[in-house]
Specification:
Number of domains: 1
Shape: globular
CATH architecture: Roll
Order of helices and strands: HHEEHEEEE
Number of helices: 3
Strand content: over 45%
CATH topology: Nuclear Transport Factor 2, Chain: A
Oligomer: single chain
Amino acid sequence: MEDLIDSFIRRANAFDVEGTLTLFASDAVIDDVSVGDAFTGRDGVRQYLERFFVGYSTRTELLSIEKEGRSRAVVRVDFTGDFGHEIGLLKIVVGQDGLITRIDADLE
């Protein structure tokens, strides 16, 4: 789980949308309460990454990982970018294939 989270952060910080997408299941969902929308499937995840990571020059720093079993984790991150600075929580669910199936995102 830690390697997957590290890969997600590293690729998102490099604005490697294609590389980041390989970490997600084809039917993955990112539900981000802070933006008031859910993004479904790889097309939705692509839209989310391009809009909120690339579009705002977002850099993410891992603060902590709290594992909830083998397939779930709550990840606390520090976001900085064109919007300023925020602390966020990412509730990540991973499928049996090792790909991200869901992220519930919110800001503290």
